[in-house]
């Protein structure tokens, strides 16, 4: 990827050079300045620091000669922003500080922008220049001057036309400054104003020069997480979880790049937690912060408890990665439980006395960030795996969890899968040998079900089938591919087609209405529960968000008879014997462990997780 990126940077520089010749011929100084600014980051990335410095010096010279204009004000702001990243393109953030050797240069540029903007009564540029200037004083720890400048920027953004798009930035900056001054209550008020403003505009983030701005989502996430950290510091746990929930909904909107994304909301967390469905159930929230991670547990006696894991996020993530790699290393005949026990001690053991005294039988995890990739069933207390003691479910958000149980009569399944080779986007996907047996087991267990295999499994055929018939159960067994965007994340279907995340979301949302909603979506034979580190959504979480009551999916690919065994047993316990979904999955996983030999290894049973409604 680094080589590929460097190739594009070289091509970009070549294009910029060609464009510069054109603008120089036409004596278009403003566009010449813009192109020079745009070309500095790629020059730095590929190690052409001398070229980058020469271009910077030329921009400074040309900027001095540019007549007073709106364009000059914005060029000065852009260049001051660029100086934050002049020597490095890592850790892009609005709150990043310029290096010491560039700080005075950035102040001079922003003072120029202030003077020009005041002269022209260009209020949007004036707000941006003052706010950015305030940020540099924040970096200098001159909080009095930083607060003064930031509040000036905030007032302009509040009161002047066409300047409001930067308002959330200045609320956020005021919050950071107040936090640094150890004024947490005032800081929280400022952060809450930033969040309220962000919720109104969603991802319409300020972009004066889009090439120099960080990903809008990174800014949004920073605001939420810093507010959540402040709330937890004052032990305002319920409020912190409310904002965590709001962040996850913002993640979904950002993932689909849709501010008006229609999500299937259900009764509030308070209503669900006070219902009889939460009896003998404990809910675990994880909240990953930069310096440490909070584990919040809601217990059946209405108590909420908070414990801290005192590792920074990268160190904790490294431990999670080690745990995951160990789970997937099936070449180890005897599973090494060391890391599973270490994570158990961090996440579960602090609450064991409460769980035992309240006779808790089910644990529901609302995981955050990289903890979404952790199969909690495989944590180990030194004697047993967690699944041997508790039924375990997960959910991306309680407000997206349907609390009602569908009537079990007239359940039928649409079972679809791919049993032949496929080629999509130039990549070959080998036939999955156990899929036909898996589909046959579904048809045998649930009468009245229907199958779509191979060439019959197309986007149009699947959509038509779901529109014309009611299927409370949809069982999909095929390959999946994960990308950053929903259009790059897809299931492989027949005729070498792909079903993208957006396609799946639309199909499910269209059929998930009232009594006809999908009760269970089961996804096997691919890494269907795993999202990327940025969003941690995965196909399964998106399905729950679209209105599916429950999703059973796998965190890693298992093209093995173990999948057929586990899926068959799950359906038997749930459909034939009337167990709840979470109990049916627990018993199916316990049965694999009891089989012994290779199937006792968590590689074969741990990846299967239940998301959403666990009843």
Task: Note the topology.
Blueprint lengths: L1 H24 L3 H17 L3 H17 L4 H13 L17 H21 L2 H17 L3 H17 L7 H14 L3 H18 L14 H18 L3 H20 L12 H5 L7 E8 L4 E6 L5 E6 L3 H15 L10 H10 L4 H6 L4 E5 L24 E4 L18 E5 L4 E3 L2 E3 L5 H11 L4 E4 L5 H10 L4 E5 L2 E2 L8 E4 L3 E4 H11 L8 E5 L13 H9 L3 E5 L6 H16 L4 H15 L6 H4 L2 E5 L3
Parallel strand pairs: 1-4, 4-5, 6-9, 6-10, 10-14, 14-15
Antiparallel strand pairs: 1-2, 2-3, 7-8, 11-12, 12-13, 15-16
Helix pairs in contact: 1-2, 2-3, 2-4, 4-5, 4-6, 5-6, 6-7, 6-8, 7-8, 8-9, 9-10, 10-11, 16-20, 17-18, 18-19, 20-21
How would you describe the overall organization of this protein?
The chain is an alpha/beta fold and 615 residues long. The protein folds into three domains: 67-256, Serine Threonine Protein Phosphatase 5, Tetratricopeptide repeat (Alpha Horseshoe), CATH 1.25.40.10; 276-399, Nucleotidyltransferase, domain 5 (2-Layer Sandwich); 406-612, Rossmann fold, CATH 3.40.50. The chain is 50% helix and 12% strand. The chain contains 22 helices and 16 strands. The chain has helices spanning 2-25, 29-45, 49-65, 70-82, 100-120, 123-139, 143-159, 167-180, 184-201, 216-233, 237-256, 269-273, 313-327, 338-347, 352-357, 435-445, 459-468, 501-511, 538-546, 561-576, 581-595, 602-605; strands at residues 281-288, 293-298, 304-309, 362-366, 391-394, 413-417, 422-424, 427-429, 450-453, 473-477, 480-481, 490-493, 497-500, 520-524, 550-554, 608-612. The strands form four sheets. It has a six-stranded mixed sheet with strand order 9-6-10-14-15-16, with helices on both faces. Strands 3-2-1-4-5 form a five-stranded mixed sheet. A three-stranded antiparallel sheet has the order 11-12-13. Helix 19 (538-546) links the parallel strand 14 (520-524) and strand 15. The longest helix has 24 residues, at 2-25. The radius of gyration is 27 Å and the shape is globular. The two termini are 44 Å apart. Mean pLDDT is 88; it is low at 203-207.
